[in-house]
Amino acid sequence: MVTLQTIKAALGRIRESIFISPFVRSETFSRLTGNSIFFKLENLQMTGSYKERGALNKILLLTEDERRRGVIAASAGNHAQAVAYHATKRGIAAQICMPLTTPLVKVS
To answer: What structural domains does the chain harbor?
Structure first.
């Protein structure tokens, strides 16, 4: 079960490796909606998505044996990039399974 305590524990694990992305006010969307609209700029993460947080947290929770065996991710995009990036950065083998229809921009 996800609790405030587990969220804080995850934050403690990932904080050093994740960019704290800013919230910025969008004048255009605020004006269009009559509200004060802010965007969280997750595109500024290394892989361009918030998915890094969950992928990194899971990687940091792996046992030594699990790290030796490596990880496998099935994804056509941002999750795959996050798993590959953070696993590789820590010397963990990562196998990414992507559909043949995955846009080439997601494959690097």
So the answer is: 18-99 (3.40.50.1100)
